[in-house]
Design a protein that fits this description.
- The chain is an alpha+beta fold and 460 residues long.
- The chain contains 18 helices and twelve strands.
- The strands form four sheets. A five-stranded mixed β-sheet has the order 3-4-10-7-5.
- Strand 1 and strand 2 form a beta hairpin.
- Helix 6 runs antiparallel to helix 8 and helix 13 packs across helix 16.
- It binds protoporphyrin IX containing FE.
- The site of protoporphyrin IX containing FE (HEM) has 29 residues, from helix 12 and helix 16.
């Protein structure tokens, strides 16, 4: 999914304003998020703050702030957000002018899809999409199932109380994405540490962009290495099929976008999704008993949670009118996906979780040219994980008082710090946690249980 960017543009305190203006704007040096601009990232539990809904009702396109002579617009309406996300002639995704030298390589190319405009975006995305067709993803399905079952076995062995975040929500997508990319086990621990910091903007842009450029560097190195020794996954495949069409920066950037896109987004949806299911035992039972129900439960969870709170920022290419507002060239337009996905367009009580709601395409994966390339993989993974969890531990309950849960503040990808659950008797005992699985390496969950670095929430 998403690389950093969206609301960071607005995270400029008054003191920084003067300095940044003097020295040239560089988001990577920002340490503060001014109050009014935090609103689209704030939630109460799983819900966006009421102010977001009030803003949508009053002005689905509203001016959030004015900085450096530019307006920052917030779009919270469903139709309005779709229109912005679909329009590459009015908006650019190129954030380079705002991030100084971090994340920009010597070649001046930032790499990755999210920051790229057509025609480069079209060219790079075309390279990636064949790796995510249903046919290719079908090949990953047994591996995903194996990864899920293995984590459940480990949980069963370490219960009855387990923190679902390090034991399940993170290791499943982490292992899936490492398998997809073909990353060797020895580089995985470092990635585990870089992931969450990248989206955590509670200290302004500093941590986020630092981690962003580090993880990118890491993958540039991996891309260069696999150029001479192609691995078994996506990076190796791209080298073999398109090696002479892309340089290492582009290759590393694509891998980087895929890695982080596939990791924290899915992990957060998994963890928060379990919390929602614990609050909705009917949906949990539906998942357990009805093979066909997983689709609608997962789609509704995606909409309801919309963990990617804002899409990549869009920069206006020219002056134009946007649903009655006058947008000027250079203005920043932030689409609040969590806001748009609670629009009345979804029918009755959009603020409630209802897997029986009539199907309608949500914006949790964005829309248009930059729509999530990994959406089908995410769906496949989430269906497998929620279904298997509901079947293995149908009597699972929260193991701590609700008010003790800590959520991830001011993160572009919303999440929960930990989710201790009491598993209850499993419906089937693991054959053996030692048994052969498709996923041979130690996982975040393994490490967390042994107090190692794998507990992302402590190491981030
Ligand atoms: C629940 C899981 C996921 C969610 C909620 C999610 C959400 C999103 C969103 C909102 C965008 C940006 C849309 C925009 O600004 O227009 C995006 C883009 C992207 N996502 Fe995901 N994503 C998820 C999983 C994945 C997975 C599994 C992968 C890859 C393995 C992935 C790879 C990407 C990439 C590469 C982009 C950039 C696409 C482009 O700019 O053309 N995402 N995602």
């Amino acid at each position: 999914m998403l690389d950093i960017a969206a609301p960071v543009k607005g995270w400029i305190g008054r003191r920084l304003l003067a300095r940044a203006t003097r020295n040239g704007l560089d988001l990577t040096s920002l340490r503060a998020v001014p109050g009014p601009l935090e609103m689209p990232l704030q939630r109460h539990g799983v819900d966006p703050v009421p102010q977001l809904g009030l803003t949508r009702a009053a002005e689905p396109v509203t001016r959030l702030s004015h900085l450096f002579g530019m307006n920052v617009w917030l779009v919270t309406g469903y139709d309005e957000a779709r229109a912005v996300l679909a329009d590459t002639s009015a908006y650019s995704n190129d954030i380079r002018p705002l991030i100084g030298t971090q994340g920009v390589t010597a070649a001046g190319s930032i790499g990755g899809l999210g920051f790229t405009d057509p025609p480069e975006h079209t060219r790079l995305r075309k390279l990636l999409t064949p790796e995510f067709t249903r046919r290719r993803l079908a090949r990953l399905e047994p591996q995903v199932a194996g990864i899920v079952e293995h984590q459940l076995d480990l949980m069963a062995a370490s219960g009855p109380v387990v923190d679902l975040v390090p034991a399940f929500a993170f290791p499943v997508p982490f292992q899936v994405i490492c398998e997809l990319l073909g990353l060797p086990p020895e580089v995985r621990t470092r990635f585990e540490q870089l992931g969450p910091a990248r989206f955590d903007v509670s200290r302004g842009g500093v941590d986020a962009f630092g981690a962003a450029s580090e993880s990118r560097e890491f993958l540039f190195g991996e891309a260069a290495r696999q150029r001479s020794a192609p691995g078994p996954g996506l990076i190796g495949q791209l080298v073999i099929e398109h090696g002479d069409e892309i340089d290492d920066v582009e290759l590393g950037g694509l891998a980087d976008g895929v890695f982080l896109g596939g990791y924290e987004t899915s992990a957060s949806t998994l963890a928060l999704g379990v919390l929602v299911l614990l609050d909705n035992p009917d949906a949990m039972a539906l998942l357990r008993d009805d093979d066909d129900a997983a689709d609608s439960v997962v789609e509704e969870l995606l909409r309801y949670l919309s963990v990617v709170q804002v899409a990549f920022p869009r920069f206006a290419r020219h002056d134009h009118e946007l649903f009655g507002k006058q947008v000027s060239a250079g203005d920043v337009v932030l689409c609040s996906l969590s806001g748009a996905d609670r629009d009345d367009a979804f029918g009755a009580a959009p603020e409630q979780f209802d897997p029986r709601r009539p199907a309608m395409s949500h914006l949790a994966f964005g829309h248009g040219f930059h729509r999530c390339v990994g959406a089908e993989l995410a769906r496949m993974e989430l269906r497998a994980a929620f279904r298997a969890l509901a079947r293995r531990f149908p009597d699972m309950t929260l193991a701590v008082p609700r008010q003790d849960l800590r959520f991830r503040d001011l993160s572009i990808v919303y999440g929960i710090e930990s989710l201790p659950v009491r598993l209850g008797p499993p419906t089937e005992w693991p054959a053996s946690v030692e048994r052969e699985t498709t996923r041979p390496t130690a996982t975040v969950g393994d490490q967390a249980r042994h107090g190692g670095e794998g507990d992302l929430r402590r190491s981030a």
